[in-house]
Design a protein that fits this description.
The protein is α/β, with parallel strands linked by helices. The protein is built from 11 helices and 15 strands. Strand 4, helix 2 and strand 5 form a beta-alpha-beta unit. Helix 2 packs parallel to helix 4. The longest helix has 21 residues. The chain is globular, with a radius of gyration of 20 Å.
Length: 316
């Protein structure tokens, strides 16, 4: 079966390619086609890995010649900042057109789609409350990005029902991704504060929702290894770290104290509810106060997944 990797140069896509290449070395018989808008950069050379240029817009046989009769399509294409139009174009329209094309051409396809835990809208909805989020928790997207991600998930599920014998999915709803070299502005802000010895303390039950891109890539390959078990399943991909415990590890490791700045949860609730804050500031308040837990029990149970590159190891 051919593996089609869409968006191989992105944060997650680049690690997925590394993971697949490593599995090739271990003897797995994989034919990998890396698809990007620009393929001048080809990071891994291997006769089992090919690079194909495609603009993700034109859905014709001549443009999608790389699709075979049987395919595993890994969709690592996505946008988490920009305008509503950009969100929809990248996160939703691509999926809509791809699903229609797969069905029209009657192809065998397993679509491994990278979604987001943002579809639950948990940080805002359950602000100041302790809440365990599972795959079955009701979705509640509260911004253009999360809405576009949820609509993409629903589009996949709807189209699979039209030909479930040939078209199937595995949707991975992923927490905030970081790597050693690529970190979000929010991640950098928290990391810098810790390095300066500052912790905005809200509760003993607040959690960080970051997961390393290498662990996400490992999950993608586990889904490929377990195609039958992961058929038409949604999984939360997370690596929760309790802030109180993480900061305790941090202070013990460096033998230093953190300057605690207490911020009442009620205060954060009021300012996020009634003030129009810049996106970075809003996300910062939500991150330092979140008592949500994205439960990865299902993926641990089904795929025996255990994060190896935890935040508590990488932030030290």
């Amino acid at each position: 079966m051919t593996i089609i990797l869409l968006g191989y140069r992105g944060l997650i896509g680049s690690y997925v390619l590394e993971e697949l290449a490593e599995q090739l070395k271990r003897g797995y018989n994989l034919d990998i086609i890396c698809v990007g808008k620009n393929i001048r950069i080809q990071p891994i050379k291997n006769n089992k890995i090919k690079y194909v240029k495609w603009n993700f817009v034109e859905f014709t046989k001549s443009k999608l010649f790389f699709l075979k009769k049987k395919n595993i399509i890994i969709n690592c294409v996505g946008k988490n900042q920009g305008t509503i139009e950009n969100y929809n174009k990248t996160n939703l329209v691509l999926i809509q057109k791809l699903c229609r094309y797969v069905l029209a051409q009657n192809l065998f396809v397993r679509l491994i789609h990278l979604g987001s835990v943002s579809v639950y809208g948990a940080e805002k909805k359950y602000l100041s409350r302790i809440k365990n989020i599972t795959e079955n928790t009701q979705t509640n997207p509260d911004d253009p990005y999360s809405k576009s991600k949820l609509e993409a998930d629903l589009c996949i599920q709807k189209n699979v029902k039209l030909n479930s014998k040939k078209f199937s999915y595995t949707i991975l709803r992923i927490a905030n991704v970081f790597s050693n070299t690529k970190k979000s502005n929010l991640f950098k802000l928290i990391e810098n504060l810790l390095n300066k010895g500052i912790w905005f303390k809200c509760s003993k039950y607040t959690n960080y929702h970051f997961i390393h891109a290498k662990d996400v890539a490992r999950v993608v390959f586990l889904a490929i290894k377990n195609l039958k078990k992961t058929t038409n399943n949604i999984y939360i991909v997370s690596d929760e770290d309790n802030q109180f415990n993480l900061h305790k590890v941090f202070t013990n490791f460096y033998n230093r104290k953190l300057f605690l700045i207490p911020i009442p949860l009620k205060f954060i609730y009021l300012i996020t509810k009634f003030l129009k804050l810049p996106k970075l500031m809003l996300n910062f308040f939500l991150v330092i106060s979140s008592q949500t837990k994205y439960d990865n029990y299902k993926i641990k149970k089904d795929l025996n997944f255990c994060p190896k590159y935890s935040l508590r190891k990488k932030i030290l």
